[in-house]
Amino acid sequence: MRDYAWVMTTAPNPYAADLGTRDALDALSDTPQRIRAIVETWSDNDFERSYAAGKWSIRKVLIHLTQTELALPTRVRFALAQVGYIAQSFAQDDWMPIDETADARTALDAYTALRRFNLAMFRNLTPEQRAREFSHPEYGTLDVWWVANQLAGHDLHHLKQIESVK
Fold first, then answer.
1. Measured between alpha carbons, how far is 71 from 148 in angstroms, rounded to an integer?
2. How far is the C-alpha of 154 from the C-alpha of 33, rounded, in Å?
3. What is the CATH number of the domain that holds 65?
4. Is the pLDDT of residue 143 over 80?
5. In which region does residue 127 sit, left (phi positive, over 0), alpha (psi from -120 to 50) or beta (all else)?
6. Phi/psi at 89 (nearest 5 deg)?
7. What is the four-CA torsion angle of 75, 27, 44, 164, rounded to 10 degrees?
8. How far is CA 92 from the centre of its chain?
9. In a domain, 104, yes or no
10. Residue 115's domain spans which residues?
């Protein structure tokens, strides 16, 4: 049986080091709860802190996680529904102004709700669906499971930032 965690693509997963050897489904399942546990007692002012000078506040990181949860699993759905799907680039700095006034708790609630929905999809993919390929303008030919691993590593990348300000 094919090991989907290490599918070769035309470009490496930018968050592979963050995911390491962790199972993507395990990380996708528990990272939102880990984030919620860290920030559940924070005040509105606490969410405006940043993990580094000149970087997004944690509120904006939560907005970014929500936007990513909208964008990347949507790619998966398109790839599964259309032969020859070509993904659009996701320019985080272009997306942020669209939602940047959202409060942190709304972003966190949206992120965790979307994750539950998307995790149900990822968990129920067949091996053939996991291997379904599509094209990306930056990364080349990818498969659906590459996206699951990217999303899981992306979460862990931002979890480290949130942990650094707790």
1. 12
2. 15
3. 1.20.120.450
4. yes
5. alpha
6. -70, 150
7. -120
8. 12
9. yes
10. 23-165
**How many whole angstroms separate alpha carbon 116 and alpha carbon 105?**
17
Q: In this structure, is residue 1 part of a structural domain?
A: no
pLDDT digits 0-9 by tens, 122-133: 999 999 999 999
Mean pLDDT computed over 88-102: 96
SS3 content of the chain, % helix, strand, coil (to 5): 65, 5, 30
* DSSP-assigned states of every residue in 29-56: HHHHHHHHHHHTT--HHHHT-BSSTTSP
Classify residue 83 by burial, with Cβ atoms within 10 Å: 0-12, 13-18, 19+: exposed
Each residue's pLDDT tens digit, 69-90: 999 999 999 999 999 999 999 9
Tokens of 80: 């599964």
